[in-house]
């Protein structure tokens, strides 16, 4: 009888733990989804992993960031930012292609705005973003088979003319105070949260066969 009661207590504790983990997972997923719905990432893909192509990628990145500077009005909405980016896609691709041609390469350069693009957890100088699916301005050089470079164009956290802190820029871009605290590290335990988000997504991908 005592052994049976002990087993039932263990079963109850296990079920409670599973339920708590599921609820935490739902909360983390909601936090990440809410953040992703307010952000446009920049994704620059090199032609290959050769040293020359990787160096060229960084030059194209700089040209695209320069061309995108001032593209999005301060305090604008996500919808306005996406519309401005879509309108500027030919100019952004041309800015990258000009650099490629100047460096003596014939790779094509394409620019597109795409939804549900997967990004890993990424830490920058004064902010970080959790793994997940985001809307992205994707700039592909040639075959696009090399290592990538990631940043954020809305809120304009990676544009050269921005003089505010990451927190101020993010608030102007429509993130709430909790989301700003999360990405800037002001939220206690944000590193653990980001890792949990990544593990949760890895598990979901495993279940779905991705």
Structure in words:
α1 (2-36) packs across α6. The protein has 6 helices and 6 strands, in the order αβααβββββααα. It has 210 residues and is of the alpha+beta class. The strands form 2 sheets. A 4-stranded mixed beta sheet has the order 2-5-1-6. The chain starts with a helix and ends with a helix.
Rg: 21 Å
The geometry reads as: globular
Enumerate the spans where pLDDT stays under 50 for 5 or more consecutive residues.
Answer: 10-26
Q: Percentage of helical residues?
A: 40-55%
Number of helices: 6
Instruction: Bin the strand percentage.
Output: 15-25%
Order of helices and strands: HEHHEEEEEHHH
Q: What's the average pLDDT?
A: 76
Describe the largest sheet: 4 strands, mixed
- Structural class comes to alpha+beta
Q: Give the strand order of the largest sheet, numbering strands 1, 2, ... along the chain.
A: 2-5-1-6
Which helices and strands appear, and what pairs or packs with what?
Elements: H1 2-36, E1 40-45, H2 51-68, H3 78-102, E2 109-119, E3 122-123, E4 128-129, E5 132-141, E6 148-154, H4 166-172, H5 177-184, H6 190-208
Parallel strand pairs: 1-5
Antiparallel strand pairs: 1-6, 2-5, 3-4
Helix pairs in contact: 1-6, 2-3, 4-5
Provide a brief overview of the structure.
The chain has six helices and six strands.
Give short descriptive properties of this protein.
single chain; four-stranded mixed β-sheet; 6 helices; 53% helix
């Amino acid at each position: 009888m005592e052994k049976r009661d002990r087993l039932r207590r263990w079963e109850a504790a296990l079920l409670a733990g599973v339920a708590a983990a599921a609820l935490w997972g739902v909360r983390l997923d909601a936090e990440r989804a809410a953040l992703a719905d307010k952000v446009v990432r920049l994704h620059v893909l090199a032609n290959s992993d050769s040293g020359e192509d990787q160096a060229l990628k960084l030059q194209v990145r700089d040209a695209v960031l320069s061309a995108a500077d001032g593209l999005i009005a301060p305090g604008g909405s996500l919808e306005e930012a996406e519309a401005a980016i879509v309108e500027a896609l030919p100019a952004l691709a041309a800015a990258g292609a000009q650099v490629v041609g100047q460096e003596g390469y014939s790779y094509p350069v394409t620019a597109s705005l795409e939804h549900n693009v997967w990004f890993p957890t990424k830490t920058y100088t004064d902010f970080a973003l959790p793994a997940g699916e985001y809307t992205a301005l994707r700039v592909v050089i040639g075959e696009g088979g090399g290592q990538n470079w990631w940043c954020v164009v809305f809120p304009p956290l990676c544009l050269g003319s921005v003089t505010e802190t990451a927190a101020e820029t993010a608030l102007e871009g429509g993130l709430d105070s909790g989301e700003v605290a999360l990405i800037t590290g002001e939220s206690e335990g944000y590193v653990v949260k980001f890792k949990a988000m990544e593990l949760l997504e890895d598990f979901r991908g495993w279940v779905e066969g991705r």
